[in-house]
Amino acid sequence: MQVTNTGWPIRWELLIRYRLIEIVALWEGRLTTNHLCNSFGIARQQASKDINAYLRDVAPGNLVYDSTLKGYKPSDTFSPKVTSGLADEYLHALASTKDFAHTFNQLDLGFAHTEMLSPPIRQVNPDILRALVQAAREGKKLDMGYVSLSSPDEESRIIAPHTLVCTPLRWHVRAYCEKNRDFRDFVLSRFRGINDIEGDADRRRENDDRWNTMVNIILVPDSRLTDYQKAIIAEDYNMVDDKRVIPVRSALVPYAVRALNLDLAKIEARPDAQQIMVANLDEVRAHAF
Q: What is the pLDDT of residues 147-156, one digit of tens each?
């Protein structure tokens, strides 16, 4: 990232606006003041001022005004200054827009040609979430009511939470469990109540070996594919020398494998359906429990 003429850091609210300016201009090819007005609830005059400040202080010459488009477009010498210029940034902006629109149905950020399929929302009690966040921040233990598929009744669990984790399908909290005498993952929607605060945690994040151990999942194209098909898959996954290395915490390996739609116990019969394989299968299996 670049700094302004007055030095780093750029004010946070300005940085967010500058990032949207770059993302929209680069990936949609047309930026108007409406993008900023609708995104941040600012007046057109302020939006115009932000675009001019971006061009003056951050990226002179990055945008040019096109009267036909009635907006700004990237110049031939466009170079990202407050973004990395990756498509993921635009796609995340689209996803965030759709997420906000679930609550604010009148919100119009300009991304009209997009649809997002979201998993069903799992119910999480706000009081429980606040307690878990506070306990993780302050290093405390909690006595919580919890239900699981393996037990017919609600149980009292004394846990020391350290990190909230978002997977593609759910949120859970990583915590030390006194019943199991180990660190476990607890699904947020399965907590039923807060029984008590039990004092300071004896075991914290720095004691969680699986959390602090990194594992490389090495993806390669399915070996049964043709060379032409392998080249397509390698491009899909941004592989280098037909490999994509994904560093993951040991505790999160099972979720990463599931997100990649892989089954470590068997091979899909159709190579065009499986598409990718794990090159270091034995190593990954050792952490996928």
A: 988 877 899 9
